[in-house]
Each structure stands twice: as C-alpha cells, then as structure tokens.
Amino acid sequence: MKVLVKIPLSTYSGYGNDGIGITRALVNMGADVYLDPTVVQAPIPEDVAQLLTKGLEAPFDLILSHVDPLTLEATPEMKRSAEMTVGWTMWEFSNLRNMKGRSTLRKRLKGFDAVVGYDAVSSAGLKEYYSGPVLTVQGGFEPDNWPAVERDWNEKNFYFCMVGMLHERKDPFVAIQAFSELKNEYKEEFEPARLSLKTATPGLHSKMEEVYPGLRIFYGLWSTETLRKFYAAQHVLLAPSRGEGKNMPALEFMSTGGTVIATNWGGHTQWLSPDYAYPLDYELVSLGGKFPDTYNARASVEHLKELMLQTFRNRSEAQAKGEIAQSVIPAMASWDSVVERLFLKLRDVSPAGERLWIKAQIAKSEATH
Questions:
Q1: Cβ(129)–Cβ(99) under 8 Å?
Q2: Rounded to two decimals, what is the model's pTM?
Q3: How far apart are CA 144 and CA 255, in angstroms?
Q4: Residue pLDDT, tens place only, 104-140
Q5: Partner of 258 at 20 to 30 A CA spacing, among 108, 142, 186, 290?
Q6: Containing domain of residue 67, as a range?
Q7: Total count of domains within the chain
C-alpha cells in the first residue's frame, strides 16, 4: 500500500507534530510511505527524516493531505496520482467564515474523495464548503513519550498547570482569574495551591508572579524529558480554551496519570469524559464585527473555580481519575489507533475506500509477521 503524505514536519507546532505522528503510524501499519512536506523544521526525528530521501513515484493508493484549512487543496495532479485523495484538518470556531482565503475553499476542496475534521465542530464547518463525504476522526499523540509517572497526591502543596502556546485562544487569564479569586476567598485553605503556566508565546510577563501569589510562569522550549518531569510535579492540567482541534498537552498529561479540567466544547469533546476528567461549562460568544454568526467558547470562571476547589479538596478522587486516564487515553488516542480508525471510516465512503481498507489490513498483517 503506497501512501503519499502531504504534511508539515516540525516538533514546534501542532500540525508539525501531527505530521510526524501520522507518518510513524502509517509506517507501523506497514504502508510504503512517501513524504511531500509543506514545511521542514529541524530537528526532525531520524526515522522520519530518512523517508525524505525517497522519490515521489506515482501512482499511490492514497494521498493524505493533513494541513491547515487555509492551504488544504486537492490539485488535479494529486487526483491523477492516487486512487483516493483525502484531506484532514481542524478548526477552532463554529464555522470557517472568519478564515482568510475561504473564498477559494470550495474550489480547493472539490477534488478530494473525502474530507476529515478533527471533531464535530470542524466537520460542521467543512460541510458548508464541501458536498462530498465529511468524516470525523481526531488526530492522536505518541503515548510512548509520556509513560505513567509517580505523583505525590498527598504532599502539602497542590499543583495546577497550563501547557502550550498560551495565547488568547488558550485563555490563560481565565485560569489566572479563577486561581486568584480562590486565593482571596479561601486564604488559609487554598494557600497550598500553586498555578504553573508553561508557554513559548509572549504575553505572560514574569512580573505577574509578584501580583498573584502562588503563580509561576515558565517561558521557553523544553525537551520531552524536561516536560515529563514538569508533568510529574503537577496534579491537574487546566484547559479553559476557547476552541481546540485536539489539545496535545491534555492527552500527554492524562497519559502520565494526571487529570484535566477542560472546556466541554470542540476538540475536547472527542476525549473528554467525567470518568477520568472534569468537563468545564462554557458559553458560546460571537466574534462580532464582520463575523457575528461565528462563535467560540468562553469557559465559566465560576465553574472553573468549583472544579479547582473540588480537585483540591478531593485529591483521592482526582488521583483515581488520573489513574483511569493513564489506562484509557494511550489506547484510545495513540496515532496507531487513530490511523486505524481513519482507514475504517474511509472503507464506508466508496469502493475505492473499501479497497484501501483491505490493502491496509494486508499491509498491517504483513508488518506484524
């Protein structure tokens, strides 16, 4: 089974990391993988980099384009070169009407045999511009990098955290406000609580630590090992995002045995369960201006305070949720599992999709024997 993957390759971006994960999962499945990268940002893992030496020799059984919807396109050349052409993307708003370049989107999507969104919100937005099959399959992560770690759930201090590019969409100031109000309302009881924000995006000034007792801000690019140690020192990850395609740090954190409080909208809903995490209430808010019919979420500060206080007071409950998360999330959201689900869904799209699924099963069988 020959698969050409059109992806960015980078360890510094969501799409770039996803490109690496997709590539590895296809190789694990036994596919003959070829890369057509939109971006290559060093350092690239050696096993993936070696694939860049392969010439692009059509025909392919599948061309899989996993890029931002701003650049997602099935060209006539792609259509001629593969039996099946699939676009895979995500969006963090209620529709794509606020997207730059949307005037060409319908034309760019027309040539795909199927388009895949990460979640129901993404898929609904894509349906406005594409009349063919629209599927929903959320991207994954690489759980081997995030094994379970030992946490001290009974230590005096209790640690909340946020991780990622903590810009406006991630809404870190919702977490800061909730944390600060709890500190003021429960001065003695909540004194052992700490909030650590790890980001590589400007906007959170270190002087804020002087204004908000218990707040720490970490800025920079960390190695996987450093981030793993950071996760081990935290108890609950906060994700009051306005919109997400997936939220990689949340999956990583749960894989290590922590639990998450996350806005119950968008990409979060693909994995968010009260069995092992805490769904956070929200309201949808219009972007206004030129896009009054486009919405994203605003997490409830009051509900976030309730959930933070709940985890702080009921550590055994939070620990139990983390233990369930570390057993559920790796199996459910690994890239190997995700790519398997993708081929399973493509099977029902068309006869070409069914043939592709059969070839995938044969490749997988040969790879494991």
A1: no
A2: 0.94
A3: 9
A4: 999 999 999 999 999 999 999 999 999 999 999 999 9
A5: 186
A6: 2-140+334-367
A7: 2
